[in-house]
Amino acid sequence: xxxxxxxxxxxxxxxxxxxxxxxxxxxxxxxxxxxxxxxxxxxxxxxxxxxxxxxxxxxxxxxxxxxxxxxxxxxxxxxxxxxxxxxxxxxxxxxxxxxxxxxxxxxxxxxxxxxxxxxxxxx
Length: 123
Hints:
alpha+beta; Nuclear Transport Factor 2, Chain: A; 6-stranded mixed beta sheet
């Protein structure tokens, strides 16, 4: 029994170490500060905000997100679902703003312990 507890503890601790830290993404949406995500953007990012959708470089993605968040002041952000599988992951969140609530979908890849954003879709 003691051996089983030790094995389970090791397995769960290993799994928790591989979980991506999505806190910077969540904090950026909460505060309305997309610029804090500049170093987390991939070289090409699929962006979709209401009224615009395109594949762009990381700095253009941050600019699009800043424009959206400037026009829709966030009142918070909550992660509804988050999952990681091997070196990829996604999160789904709710973004209440001054102009209504939006659903946010973010896909990312893991580079070591760093999250690299590949797409952001706001609906």
